[in-house]
């Protein structure tokens, strides 16, 4: 029973988190997951995805979801 | 439509030629628009020695496929492809190629440019540049 | 910048690759936009068996060179090329390739499209199509 | 002493003229050259060039010029 949390790029280095699992209890939204993992409020420039779909801070999360956080993308 | 992530250098003109030969019917398309993004040895006033391109395996491919589907919902093109590098890249090496085949030029031009802008703003890739001053994550893409 | 009129079939991807290798410095360009126009076997609802492309030797080359110079006065790109077929052309064969190399994508996209529109409206070429109903001069280009 | 006149594409076939020379005397403009060669007024859809530069019906012509007439271009 867990939510998988992933971080990429500068967030991965800043928080030293590539991939961790967190208990889903008490976590209702993407913003809740971020606060649980970092102890801080989700900054507006951080992008998120739930199960590989772009999400917003208010997107609901549930057990076994994969929640990812990353900075603005810079491909191409 | 085809999405390829490549961890090794590729020749974009060969990729385009091979996709065209394998996926398009000869005589069916009148217009092909291609964009290639290449790693420069210089960015924002600084020398760049190498680049590392991180991606989100699974989501990156999905998002690129969604971008091609979204483009096809807007323009009546025949086919399209994206090939994108991941991992370590040296100056002069191609990073991305986008190709669009259509009957007439308007659709190919517009869809190709739209796909590149969507890729730049939506596809989960992150560049880290290494130069004389050390390493730094690129914070945002230049506007199109 | 290079203008080539070719009376024999050419592979546009090879032309672009060869021009790039011979004229552009590796690591100097970040964006390449290419357009290829190809002869379809079908136009305005009719089968087309073959195409004859007449041109005005001397003026055609001059006008294409002027178009490249005019484009370079508008956009800060690094280099550009045009290759265009003349004479008899079969379905599936490339008619024209335009390539533009620049630091950033905006210039490459915009200049490539502008060059194609200028070529379509200004360069002295005339197409005659042959099909089941006989021969006919194409009266005007489709709008871009 | 002559002006060289060239026609292309459908005009070449209609008037059966690829390239001819005309006496320059009395010919002041591109429109004059067309009238001299065809006996008709220059139609508005016919394009012209003098010495391989695009011209208009009022563009002056002189001895040894090359004057070309052609329909709308259809390359690319």
List the helices and strands and how they pair.
The complex is a heterotetramer, with two copies of chain A (76 residues) and two copies of chain B (144 residues).
Chain A: E1 3-7, H1 9-15, E2 19-22, H2 30-38, E3 47-50, E4 53-55, E5 66-70
Chain B: E1 2-6, H1 12-23, E2 31-38, E3 42-43, E4 46-47, E5 50-55, H2 59-74, E6 79-85, E7 87-89, E8 94-102, H3 105-122, E9 125-131, E10 134-137
Parallel strand pairs in B: 1-6
Antiparallel strand pairs in B: 2-8, 3-4, 5-7, 5-9, 6-8, 9-10
Could you characterize what this model shows?
The complex is a heterotetramer, with 2 copies of chain A (76 residues) and 2 copies of chain B (144 residues). Chain A contains 2 helices and 5 strands. Helix content of chain A is 21%, strand content 28%. In chain A, a hairpin with a 2-residue loop joins β3 and β4 (53-55). Chain A has helices spanning 9-15, 30-38, and strands spanning 3-7, 19-22, 47-50, 53-55, 66-70. The mean pLDDT of chain A is 97. The radius of gyration of chain A is 11 Å and the shape is globular. By secondary structure, chain B is an alpha+beta fold. Helices cover 32% and strands 37% of the residues of chain B. Chain B has helices spanning 12-23, 59-74, 105-122, and strands at residues 2-6, 31-38, 42-43, 46-47, 50-55, 79-85, 87-89, 94-102, 125-131, 134-137. Chain B has a 4-stranded mixed β-sheet, sandwiched between helices. In chain B, a hairpin with a 2-residue loop joins β9 (125-131) and β10. In chain B, α2 (59-74) packs antiparallel against α3. The longest helix of chain B is centred in the C-terminal third of the chain and has 18 residues, at 105-122. The model of chain B has no long low-confidence stretch (mean pLDDT 96). At the B-C interface, α1, β2 and α3 of B face α1, β2 and α3 of C.
Q: In CATH, what is the class of chain B?
A: Alpha Beta
Strand order across the biggest sheet of chain A?
Answer: 2-1-5-3-4
Poorly predicted segments of chain A: none
Which percent range fits the helix content of chain A? Answer: 10-25%
CATH topology of chain B: Aldehyde Oxidoreductase, domain 3
Number of helices of chain B: 3
Strand order of the largest sheet of chain B: 1-6-8-2
What is the assigned CATH homologous superfamily of chain B?
Molybdopterin biosynthesis MoaE subunit
Low-confidence regions of chain B: none
Number of H/I helices of chain A = 2
Give the CATH architecture of chain B: Alpha-Beta Complex
C-alpha Rg of chain B, in Å?
A: 16 Å
The N- to C-terminal Cα distance of chain A equals 37 Å
Estimate the global geometry of chain B from the Cα principal axes.
elongated
Number of strands of chain A: 5
Count structural domains of chain B. 1
Shape of chain A: globular
